[in-house]
Amino acid sequence: MTVPTGRRARKKAATRQNIADTALRLFLEHGYDAVGIRDVAAAADVAVTTVFSHFASKEALVFEQDEDFEQRLARAVTGRAPDEPLIPALRREIHALVRHCTAEGAAPIWRMIDESPALREYEKTMRLRHAESLAAAIAADPGMARTAMACRAIARFAIDAYSLAREAAEPEAAVDEIFRMIEAAWEAARTAPGPVTEGR
């Protein structure tokens, strides 16, 4: 997670984290559907308006690192070394995200998500948004020489790799297996016919 600078920013980040941690604790203790925003606000000792100033919805409380993950994926493209190929950089970031989401204590959270239609739908929408953001970062790199459709497809594949690996018996091995296929697809797209602006 990005460390905020400045006293005000740190205080704001601490309040946000407190709300998210409190919400998750209540959701796991009492069930997601049984806990309302007012319950979260009371337990976190903040106003309801403060909760909504940090989180747009109840579902967003569960995925509090949503924005951070999206930025990390984009930085895997834009922040890599000039001579580093795209796919290894993406694979490294997906490995890191999978390790985070399969760490000790994560299983009850994913069970809660899987049991809630609202949370499943939110996660689906979130994944699509992350894929579009990642595709934009890839397409903006002048050295890619791929169509816009190829950039979108590879971004979707990378996001799906995260989802599939998270559920696999051996997540790390799953990431590597999937990325071997992604790398082959990316190389094949280099010679694919069509203008660079295809699909835009």
TrEMBL record:
The keyword DNA-binding applies. Residues 13-73 form the HTH tetR-type domain. Gene3D superfamilies: Tetracycline Repressor, domain 2. PROSITE patterns: HTH_TETR_2. Signal peptide: none annotated. Pfam families: TetR_N (PF00440). The keyword Transport does not apply. InterPro entries: Homeodomain-like_sf, HTH-type_TetR-like_transc_reg, HTH_TetR. Keywords: DNA-binding, Transcription, Transcription regulation. Residues 36-55 bind DNA. It comes from the Bacteria. This is TetR/AcrR family transcriptional regulator. It comes from Amycolatopsis minnesotensis. The lineage of its organism: Bacteria, Bacillati, Actinomycetota, Actinomycetes, Pseudonocardiales.
